[in-house]
């Protein structure tokens, strides 16, 4: 995980509409940048839907939510449409941002070891500095937790 107090790595990735989005586009706002393993899976859907439900409150607090996974733009579009997600999903098929944010790790599931995205959420301030970092977050609880961090 990246250190609190460090500058968040700049990036540009396509969103669910294929439009390029950069971290610097959000200067002046707080950014909740969350990394998740896969669209349409149980935990990731719970997390995304909870962020969606709370999204108006994030906006009230001057924050935006950006979700990042290695899924394709088309997969993100289906995910957004199926669940009515109001925030930006970013496609990192090359895993360049996933690796820059140190969330591509060895994972164990039922004794099997594989590489994958460890569910991680960063809070980045208006100047692009990481002010909070949470690794191995609980999918369903993470959105409310992050909203609380904005108080």
Topology of helices and strands:
Layout (H helix, E strand, L loop, with lengths): L11 E3 L5 E3 L7 E6 L6 H19 L2 E7 L3 H11 L4 E4 L4 H5 L3 E6 L2 E6 L2 E5 L5 E6 L6 H8 L2
Parallel strand pairs: 3-4, 4-5
Antiparallel strand pairs: 1-2, 3-8, 6-7, 8-9
Helix pairs in contact: 1-4
Instruction: Name the average pLDDT.
Output: 96
Poorly predicted segments:
none
Output the helix-strand order: EEEHEHEHEEEEH
- Strand-residue fraction? 25-35%
In one word, what is the shape? globular
Indicate the structural class: alpha/beta
Q: What is the number of E strands?
A: 9
Rounded to the nearest angstrom, the radius of gyration is 14 Å
Helical fraction equals: 25-40%
**How many strands, which pairing sense, and closed or not: the largest β-sheet?**
5 strands, mixed
Question: How is the largest sheet built, in terms of strand order?
Answer: 5-4-3-8-9
**What count of helical segments does DSSP give?**
4
How far apart are the termini?
23 Å
């Amino acid at each position: 995980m990246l250190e609190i107090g460090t500058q968040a790595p700049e990036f540009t990735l396509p969103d669910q509409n294929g439009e390029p989005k950069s971290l610097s586009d959000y200067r002046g706002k707080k950014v909740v940048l969350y990394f998740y393993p896969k669209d349409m899976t149980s935990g990731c859907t719970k997390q995304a839907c909870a962020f969606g439900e709370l999204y108006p409150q994030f906006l009230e607090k001057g924050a935006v939510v950006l979700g990042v996974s290695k899924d394709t733009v088309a997969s993100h579009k289906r995910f957004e449409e199926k669940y009515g997600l109001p925030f930006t999903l970013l496609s990192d098929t090359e895993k360049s941002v996933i690796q820059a944010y140190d969330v591509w790790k060895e994972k164990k599931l039922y004794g099997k070891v594989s590489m994958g995205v460890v569910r991680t959420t960063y809070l980045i301030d208006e100047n692009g500095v990481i002010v909070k970092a949470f690794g191995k977050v609980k999918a369903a609880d993470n959105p409310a937790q992050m909203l609380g961090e904005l108080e």
